[in-house]
Write a structure and sequence with these properties.
Strand content: 5-15%
Bound molecules: zinc ion
Mean pLDDT: 72
CATH architecture of the largest domain: Alpha-Beta Barrel
Low-confidence stretches: 1-25, 27-34, 284-332, 339-347, 354-359, 383-452
Oligomer: single chain
Number of domains: 2
CATH superfamily of the largest domain: Glycoside hydrolase/deacetylase
Number of helices: 14
CATH class of the largest domain: Alpha Beta
Helix content: 25-40%
């Protein structure tokens, strides 16, 4: 099948392969826009305003959530995409809803799902939608796996969807699971002539949110962008529930649906200008556009932008992603990438220092006690190179502190310390002075001999 051919050839030109093998049977490859007027039985349908033909080799990576470029859409134009199917229970409902509005979309199918429901893949084609692929097993963290395994995931996914179609091949469109981009993956897909689709905005329909929430997010984010690629999932019941309202609202707000298909020798790419592939190209009418151009090196690493929170999210459709701040509560955009209002990691606790000071344990007297056996050993042992330091008893701390503190700093003032110790010895009591000698340096250890 096509996928296997791709593995063997490694870097074919997709269009050439298609000319030989596909015979114009790309899923959704026939550009026949269905306007609202052409939607029998649905006079108020949203419709599909136009078909955009793209050449993946000219624009290998699109979607401003991760890349500098996106589809060359006009203001208020929207491209709908659905991931992770086909799952008949929900995918069929999605198809019915789209059909009721004569809307064409792009589906990124998973190889395993295509194996389980090949008729679901064929339904997508029969309905005229574009069919891209989304790996074989939808691995999370494709960026962390070996390039060999990543290639296998890509190749197997294409092969499975191709097998499900029976004839023809999926479009050379690929969405990386979890948007977990990696240089090796991108290079490999580019070598195959396959276009990587990120997205321009999400509706969080893989999270455990209500369908109303999905609707709200889809509309709000679209309004924020004005146009773009919306990422949805055709395996989620909340998406099924939200989609009719989304489409109706798009119609009410004057949005238009664009269907995207890959270029073929028979159907060349829609003519575009480079700046049209930027979400918000600089306007020629704005004064700043007349300033000297910014050097290219500023954008040299733009393609290396990590996925926003997405980057770290490794989300899996159908699983929830835990964040301290929801994605919708964004405060600003960085190159079109929404950032959470606050960092999603827990804040650091601040402990009151005064409390810590109060709870510090008081050293026990026994710490300063030297056992009889050890004391005898100290007296018998040869002088150490390390000076023992005078250790004040609690009872004499105030008077001896000045002398011993200086000693502890390595600047012995033996005169005062010795004088102080001798005064104790002369005064009797239970104190004993142990002296150690090393060369001309004399050390003094004061020990409180305790009676138990
Ligand atoms: Zn997915």
């Amino acid at each position: 099948m096509i996928g296997n051919v791709l593995v063997g050839v490694r870097a074919p030109l997709w269009a050439i392969l298609c000319a030989v093998l596909c015979s114009g049977l790309f899923a959704g490859g026939v550009a026949q826009p269905a306007s609202a007027a052409d939607c029998p039985g649905h006079p108020g349908a949203l419709g599909t305003s136009r078909t955009l033909v793209v050449d993946p080799r000219e624009h290998p990576r699109i979607g401003t959530m991760q890349y500098p470029e996106t589809l060359p859409l006009e203001d208020h134009e929207v491209v709908l995409t659905f991931d992770d199917g086909p799952l008949p229970r929900y995918s069929n409902q999605i198809l019915e809803i789209l059909a009721s509005q004569c809307v064409k979309a792009t589906f990124f199918t998973i190889g395993r799902m295509a194996q389980a429901s090949p008729e679901g893949v064929r339904k997508l084609r029969e309905a005229g939608h574009s069919i891209g692929t989304h790996s074989q097993d939808h691995p999370l963290g494709m960026k962390r796996m070996s390039i060999e395994r990543a290639r296998q995931e890509i190749d197997d996914g294409i092969a499975s969807v191709t097998a499900a179609l029976g004839e023809g091949a999926p479009a050379p469109f690929f969405r990386i699971p979890g948007l977990s981009r990696a240089d090796g993956v991108e290079d490999y897909l580019a070598s195959l002539g396959i276009q990587i689709w990120s997205a321009d905005f999400l509706a969080d329909d893989w999270r455990h949110v209500s369908s109303s929430r999905v609707y709200d997010l889809a509309i709000k984010r679209l309004e924020d962008h004005g146009k773009g690629i919306l990422l949805l999932h055709d395996i989620q019941p909340r998406t099924v529930a939200a989609l009719p309202r989304i489409l109706n609202e798009l119609k009410a707000r004057g949005y238009r649906i664009v269907h995207v298909v890959p270029a073929t020798p028979e159907q060349p790419a829609t003519p575009t200008e480079p700046q049209q592939w930027q979400l918000h190209p600089p306007s020629e009418t704005v004064a700043i556009s007349h300033w000297p151009k910014i050097p290219n090196f500023v954008f040299a690493d733009a393609s290396m932008l990590p996925a926003p929170a997405l980057s770290d999210l490794d989300w899996h459709d159908g699983r929830s992603m835990t964040l301290a701040e929801p994605f919708d509560r964004v405060k600003r955009l960085v190159r079109g990438v929404p950032l959470p209002r606050e960092a999603p990691w827990p804040r650091q606790l601040t402990l009151p220092q005064e409390d810590a000071a109060i709870t510090l344990p008081v050293p026990a007297e026994s710490i300063f006690e030297i056992r009889e056996g050890l004391r005898a050993a100290m007296q018998a042992a040869p002088p150490s190179r390390h000076a023992e330091q005078p250790v004040p008893s609690r009872h004499q701390t105030a008077s001896a502190e000045a002398g011993s503190r200086r000693t502890l700093r390595g600047r012995p003032h033996l005169g005062r310390a010795r004088q102080h110790a001798v005064s104790h010895l002369a005064g009797g009591g239970s104190r004993q002075v142990v002296r150690a000698r090393k060369g001309t340096l004399k050390h003094l250890v004061q020990v409180k001999k305790r009676s138990v």
